[in-house]
Amino acid sequence: MADAPGKSARKPVPHPSPESLPFWEGAKAKKLMLPQCRICGQFWFPPSQRCRYCLSAEFDWREAAGLGRIYSFVVYHRVYHPAFENEAPYVVAIIALDEGPRLLSNIVGTAWDQVRCDMRVQVVFEDAESGATLPKFAAAP
After folding, report:
1. At a CB cut-off of 8 Å and minimum separation 6, what does 5 contact?
2. How many separate domains does the chain show?
3. What is the pTM of this model?
4. Which terminus of the chain has a smaller tally of CB atoms within 10 A, N or C?
């Protein structure tokens, strides 16, 4: 549905599944939460009902350190959604967390032309207008 004339477009919001709800609740509390298997000890993402390594259904949600490296990234210069019109260019990156999993997120606080693969980053949390809290990443000190 198109936005009414004169009304700005709204950004898409997450719609948590039962499997991802603890991740989004953690983000709201400014914590990066990941599932960790009780059997093999591995962390994984995206969330699922079983460990992706050993298929165990025994796992807990643990707070990750929120540190990692940029594995890969792309700079969006073109606006694909009207709600991002004032943000282009912006960086979308795959973050390899120190705990092992990779997350897709934005890089913030660094000019797009200064972002590099293998750059150390840390999680930061952005409270969106929708009420959701989004984990994003900034250069680590």
Report:
1. none
2. 1
3. 0.89
4. N
